[in-house]
Structures are given as C-alpha cells and as structure tokens.
Amino acid sequence: MLDMNRMIEIIKKNQDFKKVGMILCHNGIVREYSKDGRKVKALKVELDNVKLTDLINRIKKKPGIVDVLVKIREGKLSVGEDIMYVVIAGDIRENVFPALKEAVNSIKSYVIKKEEEIF
Q1: What is the chain's pLDDT, residue by residue, as a tens digit (119 residues)?
Q2: Distance from C-alpha of 104 to C-alpha of 96, rounded to nearest angstrom
C-alpha cells in the first residue's frame, strides 16, 4: 500500500535532514480519459526495479538532493487509484523542482510500462 505520509516520516529521519529546505511530492493517479480522449477502464502497470533503483541513485547524486523515495503499484489499476508516489527532499527549489520533474518523467518513460484498457 502506498502511504505518502509514511514516506515523509522516513525522509525526516534521514541523518542529513537538517540540510533539507523542502520536500516535494508527486502522486500519479489513473485518469478517466487517455491523452487522446478515449475513456479508460483500467491501467496495467509493470515496473522494472533495476531501472528504478538506478534512477533513484542518480537523482540522489544531484546537487542539493538529500533523499529520494519512490513507491509504484504494479498490476491492473482502476480509474482514480494511485499509481505512484515520488518524494524528494533537498535544499532549495532550484535543485528540488528539476529533480522531481526528471524523476517523474524518467519513471514514466523507461522505468514503468503502462497499458491502458479502453472501453
């Protein structure tokens, strides 16, 4: 089960948390309509854990980033269900916003495979 509050609690226990000036969170949700306007019945999600681990390690090495946590649900998900949570802690917005954007875009482009089930 995904729990963003628990993820934030974990980040706050990081030994370097005193360096954190902000925590950004992303909550990806199954939409009712695809990008091309077709009605979605469900979404099938497959995760590549090796690629996810590599991505998290890469993002953690960026300037100002203190911690990165990602939780992704696999399998068949219904409209309105949470797909993923991404939580990134870092020093300033100039470092943390781009890191979150890169993490989410990378997850969507090569870490997971999604297949929409259309009505």
Answers
A1: 679 999 999 999 999 999 999 999 999 999 999 999 999 999 999 999 999 999 999 999 999 999 999 999 999 999 999 999 999 999 999 999 999 999 999 999 999 999 999 98
A2: 12
Domain membership of residue 42 as a residue range: 4-118
Alpha carbon 71 to chain centroid distance?
Answer: 7
Q: Say if residues 73 and 81 touch (Cβ distance below 8 Å).
A: yes
| Amino acid of residue 68 | V
User: Which CATH number covers residue 36?
Assistant: 3.90.1170.40
Q: What is the DSSP letter of 103?
A: H
Total domains in the fold of the chain: 1
- Residue 64 falls in which region: left (phi positive, over 0), alpha (psi -120 to 50) or beta: left
Tell me the pTM: 0.93
| Helix/strand/coil for 117 | strand
Positive or negative, the CA dihedral 20, 23, 24, 25 is: positive
